[in-house]
């Protein structure tokens, strides 16, 4: 868990320097593995999630209400956010509104310089394939979450 080319070099050499640490045990549901992580310097509110994952398919974070966001990684890189921590409005696009407690999905893209950017104004509900694949693991970490 960390950032960029240096991170992968570090993994290759067996000495990745992690900015994040695990909270509790990993869970695997339906073949998808995830765990809660937090920044090492954070206290009870886990402010964000890493952009790279080593052995997990998803990382989750908690806020004062409990687990409130999950991030999906493909080829170790951030690719999707499932977020139910706040009300969300797609500003300047379709104006779509998502209630707190209902997952809104945002896509991450990697830019030519290697950094990542999240498309925050095009949030959508989870599609059926996402609910089938990731839904059971999300529910395992947050039983009250809603997908619709
Ligand atoms: Zn949002």
Key structural traits:
148 residues, alpha+beta, seven-stranded mixed beta sheet, two-stranded antiparallel sheet, 2 helices, 9 strands, 16% helix, 41% strand, globular, binds zinc ion
Could you give the topology of this structure?
Blueprint: H1 4-12, E1 20-29, E2 32-39, E3 58-63, E4 66-74, E5 77-83, E6 88-89, E7 97-98, E8 104-110, E9 116-124, H2 128-141
Parallel strand pairs: 2-3
Antiparallel strand pairs: 1-2, 3-4, 4-5, 5-8, 6-7, 8-9
The protein binds zinc ion.
Zinc ion binds next to loops.
Give a written overview of the molecule.
With 148 residues, the protein is α+β, with helices and mostly antiparallel strands. It has one domain. Helix content is 16%, strand content 41%. Strand 1 and strand 2 form a beta hairpin. Bound molecules: zinc ion. Zinc ion binds next to loops.
Q: What's the gist of this structure?
A:
With 148 residues, this protein is an alpha+beta fold. Helix content is 16%, strand content 41%.
Helix content: 10-25%
- Counting DSSP H or I runs of 4 or more residues, the number of helices is 2
User: What is the succession of H and E elements?
Assistant: HEEEEEEEEEH
**Nearest-integer average pLDDT:** 89
The hetero compounds bound to this protein are: zinc ion
Termini separation (Å)? Answer: 31 Å
Radius of gyration: 15 Å
| Spatial shape | globular
How much of the sequence lies in strands comes to 35-45%
Strand order of the largest sheet: 1-2-3-4-5-8-9
* Count of discrete structural domains: 1
Low-confidence stretches: none
Largest sheet: 7 strands, mixed
Number of strands: 9
Structural class: alpha+beta
